[in-house]
Amino acid sequence: MIRTVGLHKAFGPKTVLAGVDLAVGQGESLCVIGQSGTGKSILLKCILGLVAPDGGQVFWQDRPLDAATRPDFFRRFGMLFQGGALFDSLTVWQNVGFRLRQRMPDARARALAIEKLARVGLGPETADLMPAELSGGMAKRVGLARAIADDPEVIFFDEPTTGLDPIRARRINDLIRGIVTETGATAITITHDMDSVRAIGDRVALLQDGHIAWDGPVAGMDRAAPLAGFLGRS
Amino acid sequence: MTPIRLVGRIVLRIIGAVGAVTLFVGRGLFRLHPFHGRALAGQLVQIGWLSLPVVGLTALFTGAALALQIHSGGARFQASDVVPAIVAIGMVRELGPVLGGLMVAARVASSIAAEIGTMKVTEQIDALVTLSTDPMRWLVTPRLWAAVLTVPVLVAAGDIIGIMGGWLVGTRSLGFGSAAYLANSAAYLESWDVLSGLIKGAAFGLIVAASGCWWGMRSGRGAEGVGRATKSAVVAAAVGILAANFVLTGLFFE
User: Fold this and answer.
1) Distance separating alpha carbons of residues B42 and B128, to the nearest angstrom
2) Sequence-ordered alpha helix ranges (H) in chain B
3) Mean pLDDT, all residues of chain B
4) Interface test with B, best of A73, A82, A87 (most B CBs within 10 A)
5) What pLDDT, in 10s, does the model give residues B47-94?
6) Of B75 and B169, which is predicted with more confidence?
7) pLDDT above 90 covers what percent of chain B?
8) For residue A49, which residues of chain B lie inside 8 Å, CB to CB?
9) Which residue from B minimizes the CA distance to A87?
10) Closest to B123 (Cβ–Cβ): which among A49, A83, A99?
11) Residue B55, exposed/middle/buried by CB under 10 A (0-12, 13-18, 19+)?
12) What positions does the domain ABC transporter occupy (chain A) (predicted)?
């Protein structure tokens, strides 16, 4: 469904991506892991077109993702940002229903937004709060509700559990797994949290030195030699 | 590097920057579809209505001080009677637009740069893109148009309040009669004096909003990056207003 071929990206003399080849199938949940600073988020931004790659190509349903096809792609995907990236000047429901409000009346968009908030475990009383009034865990949930508001075919999760305590991180992982399973959406998760990988992923890819150093099923990662250092095994 | 090469590089950089800012403003002004009316309404309030107190107070004290200065200076050559006319002409042609523009620059350019800069470092701008919304149309276009539309109104309000500041001092301290002061204020004012000030206001509004948006969109990472963007926006807006005022005054009155 989504495929990258030879993605390159450098910032000055520092090469971050040195030819990344990666493919995610329909309905599959892929986790991309790697140490901090290895370019996981840059890889994600290159796929989305938020950062222009220096070389290589991204394909979506075997069509190159470019200025012509990206608007259609954006209508079919959702994204949970690392810090939530909620719009400060909008209420919770306006954040969740941001895209819905562009094509339906506010009352309908609000009702749908409240449905999505319920899906992530937040009651209707949160709908009129401002993002500044939310805790970190609640902001993640609102971000997740926004990501799924338009029933996307593909969902990207950028470090979904960063900044959360283990209990809230587990809840977010469970929510993501439930949503991905329930909707059948394709999921790409950027993380360095192995609990997230085990909870969310079907497949895992290790990004190291600008390349995909290992790519295989989550069930097999404990035996994979290239992952030994990352998993803390000797 | 040879001096000629250095000069060439600096000139090319300046030309490049002017071109980039011009394209940015052009895209911001004319990317109207889809039109975000709610965002524009919010900015009309933020930039226009909420700037009225500071612009009004500035104009009031400036008009009052101008009346005192002209009365005192004019007394040296027996020209104290021209206080109402000079306060009126000085306010509508020059001080109303320039001081109003500078006060709006201090209040609005900084807040636009800080708001957009914060949105950039917290990935809200990336989020807009992924939600199929062009940040230029959502963030920049409403701010540019709101400033172009409201700063002339603020200038007009500042002109009136400034003249009234002069009237207060003139009638309470300088011995002018109320009706005579107002009649003298109006007698020497021409419509072009007022219109030129309003045109300046629109131009200064554009400079203020463009500076805030430009620097906000180019904000570096973290609090330091946002702080630097805010400072740069205010400095650029203030210098831009003073430079544009010189150019426009030359165009309008020479």
Assistant:
1) 18
2) 3-30, 37-43, 52-74, 83-90, 96-104, 110-121, 124-130, 135, 141-172, 178-187, 191-217, 222-253
3) 92
4) A87
5) 999 999 999 999 999 999 999 999 988 878 877 788 899 999 999 999
6) B169
7) 73
8) 129
9) B124
10) A83
11) buried
12) 2-234
Is the pLDDT confidence value at B120 over 80? yes
Chain B residues touching residue A88 (CB < 8 angstroms): 118-119, 124
Chain centre to alpha carbon of residue B9: 32
Shortest distance, CA B239 to any CA of chain A (angstroms): 30
Complex prediction ipTM: 0.85
pLDDT tens, per residue, chain A with 234 residues: 888 999 999 988 888 999 889 999 888 899 998 888 888 889 988 988 888 899 899 988 888 888 888 888 888 888 999 888 999 989 999 999 999 988 889 999 999 999 999 988 889 999 999 999 998 888 988 998 999 888 888 899 998 888 788 888 888 888 888 888 888 889 999 988 888 888 888 899 989 888 888 888 888 877 777 777 777 665
Cβ-Cβ contacts under 8 Å for B101 (sequence gap 6 or more) = B151, B155, B200, B201, B204, B205, B207, B208, B241, B245
DSSP A123: -
Is the Cα dihedral B141, B142, B143, B149 positive or negative?
positive
Q: Give the number of other CB atoms < 10 A from CB of residue B185.
A: 23
| Sequence spans of domains, chain B | 37-253
For residue A114, the distance in angstroms to the closest alpha carbon of chain B comes to: 18
Question: How does strand A154-158 pair with strand A77-80?
Answer: parallel
Chain A interface, best mutation among B36, B120, B128, B132, by max A CB count within 10 A: B132
List, in sequence order, every residue forming a beta bridge with A10; answer none if it has no partner: A15
**In chain B, what residues touch A100 (CB-CB under 8 Å)?**
none
Q: Answer positive or negative: Cα dihedral of A192, A45, A95, A178.
A: negative
B129 CA: distance to closest CA in chain A (Å): 8
Pick from A49, A75, A81: CB nearest B132: A75
B131 and A74 in contact by Cβ < 8 A? Answer: yes
